[in-house]
Amino acid sequence: TSITAIRTAAVSGVATRLLAREDAGDLAILGSGVQARTHLEAMRCVRRIRRVRVWSRNAENSRAFAARESRRQGVAIEAAASARDAVAGADLICTATSARAPILHGEWISPGAHVNAVGSSVPSSRELDGDAVRRSRLYADRRESLENEGGDFLLAKKEGKVGDGHVVGEIGEVAIGRAPGRRSPDEITLFKSLGLAVEDVASAKHIYDRARASGAGRMLEFGGHREAS
Question: Were both Cys, which of 31, 55, 81, 91 would link to 36 (CB 3.0–4.6 Å)?
Answer without folding.
Answer: 31
